[in-house]
């Protein structure tokens, strides 16, 4: 009897709150959003079409497609998506009056961190504190951290090398010894933990992502670092697009075994962060002097303590190690994939690197390779064509409304423009679907395109880790291309992707072998 009543009550609730009221609100149209074109027939009434779009796996590309000839689309009852490049400045630029949307508070932890804090003044204070640590001077000081981590990855790759591939053949399945995406994720996890917390996790020696996680009560257990991080993002990215019902949808999804497993795999993520934070804090209280972000979080340059609350410290550590790993891994997987697919560009790149590195040099020094124009062109073109964060980052108009694309958008409306859409605008990037690193080689052209090249977003909430990512990508890519040859499983093989918040990549099995590096004349 009880279950029947429960089911009946639930159905009634759903009918009233999800059907009747939204339809009334749609026709009442208090904000006048009905004049904008719908993304789908029901977008004016419910967020479900957008949740569905998100579940399809590549919402940024699909939405860009939907924007053809439509500058503004209503993607939810209170949400507008923009498809015109000029909107980037209005929504994200330095002068914008928009703030991060409620989504960030929902997916954030109990203490707002640099990434998810909404309030502008709070953000400025946090940003100022960490900017000192992210300044370019420190970056070069931390090059050795990236170098050592690169050495560890190459030591693992050396062991996985196979015999050279005869020309015009495809690798034996048993020779596909490297899942590149897996290994490069282990690399970026190690690199960011070393840079931020002076911590090494042994992942590159282990070949896997098992680490210690720690509950608030102090007990510890073993957990999968990358799986937990990815599944956490994967799960939230499906259900968060209806903010008010996020908790409800999430709980409801646990009825299904598939989602129960996803949420369970995601659970350890907060405990992984917590263990990293506690371990580093113990070293700090023991008086160990270490050179990392954590130090910048604790004391200012003059050595005066910032006296942050413990919860905030844990939050900031979470922000950095969460935002700082998979994005760079996605970029590196993508660029290696594209270069294998375009042997002519790979050859051009090798020639350029060979011109500056000695034949027996293993790790490319940053100072030697950072200004190589074709290397930078390849990295940028890969992030243009497939931005690691492709999505429209949700912002909220201020209560008094805002002008976007010359139109007045009412207050407290969720607005966004996909990074993917900006990067595939043919008026800025001719033949946007083609991988053409040479488009970046002409300085005049670069100057013209750069305002619309926004893989790290732009404005006051743009990425603080941009330079660190270039440091990692540049050293890693130059070193890999100099030392190895690679082959994909075959000409028909494709990389799979699933867009959570970032564009997660599937496996990339490759065969690798050592190159014969011609001696310099
Ligand atoms: C290719 C690599 C990377 C890409 C594509 C990328 C992309 C982005 C994007 C698009 C944003 C804006 C997010 C939003 O508005 O919701 C962002 C913010 C942020 N990123 Fe990155 N990122 C990368 C690497 C890194 C690294 C290496 C770090 C850490 C060292 C990092 C730390 C952060 C932080 C802390 C923020 C928040 C900044 C703020 O709100 O003030 N990112 N990133
Ligand atoms: C939006 O959807 C409604 C149905 O809910 C439809 O009547 C209307 O024509 C659509 N508007 C546009 C601009 O497509
Ligand atoms: C649209 O905004 C509303 C509230 O402003 C939010 O609840 C909803 O999750 C958003 N949906 C999308 C698709 O961004
Ligand atoms: C990155 O380095 C450049 C100088 O090369 C500097 O102008 C810029 O502010 C730095 N960006 C960040 C986010 O630290
Ligand atoms: C890979 O993608 C290409 C182009 O989209 C397609 O022609 C090919 O069939 C795909 N290969 C596989 C194995 O799915």
Descriptive notes:
The protein has 521 residues and is α+β, with helices and mostly antiparallel strands. It has a single domain, classed as Cytochrome P450 (Cytochrome p450, Orthogonal Bundle), CATH 1.10.630. It has 23 helices and 15 strands. It has a 6-stranded mixed sheet. A 3-stranded antiparallel sheet has the order 5-15-12. Strands 6-7 form a two-stranded antiparallel ribbon. A hairpin with a 5-residue loop joins strand 6 and strand 7. Helix 8 packs antiparallel against helix 9 and helix 8 packs parallel to helix 23. It starts with a helix and ends in a 7-residue tail after the last strand. The mean pLDDT is 93. One 2-acetamido-2-deoxy-beta-D-glucopyranose binds next to loops.
The named CATH superfamily: Cytochrome P450
Q: What do the pLDDT scores average to?
A: 93
CATH architecture: Orthogonal Bundle
Note the main sheet.
6 strands, mixed
Tell the overall outline.
globular
Overall domain count: 1
Q: What is the CATH top level name?
A: Mainly Alpha
Strand order of the largest sheet: 1-2-3-11-8-4
By secondary-structure content and strand pairing, the structural class works out as alpha+beta
What small molecules accompany the polymer chains? protoporphyrin IX containing FE, 2-acetamido-2-deoxy-beta-D-glucopyranose
> Number of helical runs?
23
Q: What is the gyration radius calculated from CA atoms? A: 24 Å
CATH topology value? Cytochrome p450
Low-confidence stretches: none
Helix percentage: 40-55%
Distance between the termini: 88 Å
Percentage of residues in DSSP E strands: 5-15%
How many beta-strand segments?
A: 15
């Amino acid at each position: 009897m009880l279950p029947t009543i429960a089911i009946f009550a639930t159905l009634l609730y759903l009918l009233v709150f999800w059907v009747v009221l939204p339809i009334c609100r749609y026709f009442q149209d208090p904000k006048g959003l009905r004049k904008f074109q719908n993304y789908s027939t029901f977008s004016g009434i419910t967020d479900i079409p957008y949740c569905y779009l998100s579940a399809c796996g590549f919402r940024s590309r699909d939405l860009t497609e939907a924007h053809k000839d439509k500058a503004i689309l209503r993607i939810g009852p209170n949400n507008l998506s923009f498809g015109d490049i000029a909107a980037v400045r209005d929504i994200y630029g330095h002068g914008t009056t928009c703030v991060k949307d409620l989504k960030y508070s929902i997916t954030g932890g109990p203490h707002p961190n640099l990434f998810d804090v909404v309030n502008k003044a709070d953000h400025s204070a946090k940003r100022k504190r960490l900017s000192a640590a992210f300044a370019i001077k420190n970056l070069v000081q931390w090059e050795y951290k990236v170098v050592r981590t690169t050495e560890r990855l190459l030591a693992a790759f050396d062991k996985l090398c196979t015999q050279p591939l005869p020309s015009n053949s495809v690798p034996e399945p048993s020779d596909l010894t490297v899942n590149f995406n897996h290994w490069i994720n282990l690399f970026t996890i190690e690199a960011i933990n070393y840079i931020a917390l002076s911590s090494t996790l042994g992942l590159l020696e282990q070949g896997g992502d098992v680490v210690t996680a720690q509950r608030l009560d102090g007990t510890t257990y073993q957990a999968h670092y990358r799986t937990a991080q990815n599944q956490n993002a994967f799960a939230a990215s499906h259900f968060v697009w209806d903010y008010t019902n996020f908790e409800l949808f999430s709980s409801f999804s646990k009825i299904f075994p598939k989602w129960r497993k996803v949420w369970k795999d995601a659970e350890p993520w907060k405990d992984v962060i917590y263990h990293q934070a506690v371990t580093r804090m113990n070293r700090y209280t023991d008086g160990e002097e270490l050179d990392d972000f954590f130090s910048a979080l604790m004391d200012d340059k003059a050595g005066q303590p910032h006296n942050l609350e413990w919860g905030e410290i844990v939050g900031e550590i979470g922000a950095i190690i969460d935002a700082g790993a998979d994005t760079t891994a996605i970029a590196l997987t993508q660029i290696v994939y594209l270069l294998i697919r375009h042997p002519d560009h790979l050859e051009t790149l090798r020639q350029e690197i060979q011109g500056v590195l000695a034949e027996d040099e293993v790790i490319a020094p940053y100072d030697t390779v950072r200004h190589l124009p074709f290397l930078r062109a390849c990295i940028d073109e890969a992030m243009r064509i497939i931005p690691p964060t492709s999505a429209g980052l949700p912002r909220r108009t201020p209560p008094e409304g805002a002008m976007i694309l010359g139109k007045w958008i009412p207050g407290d409306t969720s607005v966004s423009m996909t990074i993917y859409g900006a990067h595939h605008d043919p008026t800025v990037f001719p033949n946007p679907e083609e991988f053409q690193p040479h488009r970046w080689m002409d300085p005049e052209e670069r100057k013209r395109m750069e305002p619309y090249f926004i893989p790290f977003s732009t404005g006051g909430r743009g990425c603080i880790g941009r330079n660190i990512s270039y440091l990692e990508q540049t050293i890693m890519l130059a070193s890999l291309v100099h030392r190895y040859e690679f082959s994909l499983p075959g000409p028909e093989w494709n990389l799979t992707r699933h867009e959570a918040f970032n564009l997660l990549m599937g496996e990339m099995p490759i065969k690798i072998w050592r190159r014969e590096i011609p001696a310099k004349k």
